Each structure stands twice: as C-alpha cells, then as structure tokens.
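Pasting as-is:
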Amino acid sequence: MDENEQEKLNAFQILIILLSIYVLAALSLDTVFTLPTETSNLGSVLICITGKLPV
C-alpha cells in the first residue's frame, strides 16, 4: 500500500468501535461505582449479548 493511500472505515468497523467503547464504559462504571445488583446484572447481560454478535 502506498503511503498516501488511506483505508476508509466501513459501517461494520464503526459498529465494532462503538460497541467496544460501550463495553469499556460499562465495565469502568461497574468497577468504579457501587451499582445496584439489577443494574450490574443488566450491564453484564448486554455485554454478553454484544460479545456474541456474528463477526
């Protein structure tokens, strides 16, 4: 690849970046703050669901 050529982000790559940011934010909040059990469990379920998305 030439130095001047740049790869463009496609929709899938943007989705993966957004989901990664969401997971990191959810884990950080769950670690830093004492959240109610229901909230913590909901965050864990959503993280597991996003982790099982087809690649």
